[in-house]
Amino acid sequence: MEVLITETLAEEGVRWLRKAGLAVDIKVGLSSGELSSIISSYEAVIIRSATRITREIIDKASSLKVIGRAGVGVDNVDLEAATRRGIIVMNTPGGNAISAAEHTMAMILSLSRNIPQANNSFRSRKWERGRFVGTELYEKTLGIIGLGRVGSEVAKRVLAFGMKVVAYDPFISEEKLRGLKVKLTHLEDLLRCSDYISIHAPLKSETHHLIREQEFRMMKKGVRIINCARGGIIDEDALFRAIKEGRIQGAALDVYEREPPFDTALIELDSVIFTPHLGASTREAQTQVSIQIADQIIDALKGRGVRNAVNLPSFDLEMLEEISPWISLAEKMGSLLCQLLRSPIEKVNITYVGEMNQYNIGLITGSLLKGLLEPILEEKINHVNALAVAKERGIKLAEIKSDQIEDFANLITVELLTASGEVSLAGTLFSIKDPRIVRIDEYHVEVVPEGNIFICFNEDRPGAIAHITGILAEKGINIASMGVGRKKIGGKAITVLNLDTPVSSSLIEKIKASPIILEAKMVKI
């Protein structure tokens, strides 16, 4: 397996990859065209912030399985295109959190005490003590936008300075804040009460220009802004106007909408401090993220689990071992359902009962959709892109976790809603290596979901099973196991046979020639 590294990566991570038996190519500074021309040769690519993995590059990446970001932000990767192609995108969110938090603290202190400006003045042989009077952090309020790993580390540090901390993060619960003296609030309230505002949110469509003209007008006069997260969250033109008009005291920026940002008007302002995207640039962080992304790439390529994926539920080897029987069963159920379809799928309802509910069921759902869609589509379907492909085709999905135990303590039930009606299956595990289909539509059966399966709907009367098995015996087709089910005596029944060899179309027609046979179908799993 070959791995491409397109940017500088600490040697420790490179050695770790090679020690695991992976072939590593290091090609720094590739143009988009150059990357497109070689990407098909690699199973994994490791990038940092400078490399852009576009849809066009992904379309050429015929062998690519994993994109690894040595760092946090993945806005330089077309996630939709990667997911659509079934490529895992992963990052290293904790590897540089301390370095980024410490850089943020350096920016806050530099803003407060005018350290860069004083340094420049001193180098010009000036002694301007009165010009650079600073501001204490003690009892000031810091507003943190985004209370993830870095934001939380910043909060701990400024609390030690005696600051008050408020935070805006719609995805953080009050429980997460236990032990951290931080008050969650709305964005508008944070903007109005903060003396300093530090941004630690990811760049997404929802956060692009989150701080623009109207937000600056809500802020306290004299507020200071710090952004060591992602460029584009602050509208830089609006920031320039707010500082020029005296509403904002100053800003400290490590990230920009376009990098390098040498054409920005902010450069002319003495009250703005700049650093060239140095948040994660410490020896410790570089070593940590290089080893972390290398380790994650190795595990993903060798099937030992996926960690820190941004487009797939993360799982480790232990969890994978525990749920792999359910993953396998779900894929087989999807494959069987696909072969029972009579018309296009409109909606998939999946109900989970039992032990798998303690895990992230996304992997199981992805496997079921893979089995359902793969037989009818030409494109490659896997656990990563199955949900995206389903949505693209207008298939609605509902996942339900239930604790209502009926016939089985652990059960997966799938209902497909189609234009011609509903098709359903239920499956369980009799033991770790013994999966069973226990219901087809409304009929209770016991079927091993493996190999050649002959499914027949027939009238519930004497001679039906003998008719089927007699014809199979004439052709020397051996029956491995059999399951039958009915709703009431003398009504409609189902006969399901596991066979050593498949039944031909002509033989199926011969079986269906009897009036007691209502429907017959051969499926293969």
Structure report:
Residues 453-525 form the ACT domain. Its EC number is 1.1.1.95. Belongs to the D-isomer specific 2-hydroxyacid dehydrogenase family. With 525 residues, the chain is an alpha/beta fold. It has four domains: 2-94 and 284-301, Rossmann fold (3-Layer(aba) Sandwich), CATH 3.40.50.720; 97-274, 3-Layer(aba) Sandwich (Rossmann fold), CATH 3.40.50.720; 313-441, D-3-phosphoglycerate dehydrogenase, domain 3 (60s Ribosomal Protein L30, Chain: A); 449-525, ACT domain (Alpha-Beta Plaits, 2-Layer Sandwich). The protein starts with a strand and ends with a strand. The protein has helices at 11-19, 32-38, 55-60, 79-84, 97-113, 115-123, 149-160, 187-193, 213-218, 236-244, 283-301, 317-340, 362-373, 386-392, 464-474, 505-512, and strands spanning 2-5, 23-26, 44-47, 66-69, 88-90, 141-145, 164-168, 182-184, 196-199, 223-227, 248-253, 272-274, 345-353, 396-402, 411-418, 421-431, 434-440, 443-447, 452-459, 479-486, 492-499, 517-524. The model has no long low-confidence stretch (mean pLDDT 92). The strands form four sheets. The chain has a seven-stranded parallel beta sheet, with helices on both faces. The protein has a six-stranded mixed beta sheet with strand order 14-13-15-16-17-18, covered by helices on one side. A five-stranded parallel beta sheet has the order 2-1-3-4-5.
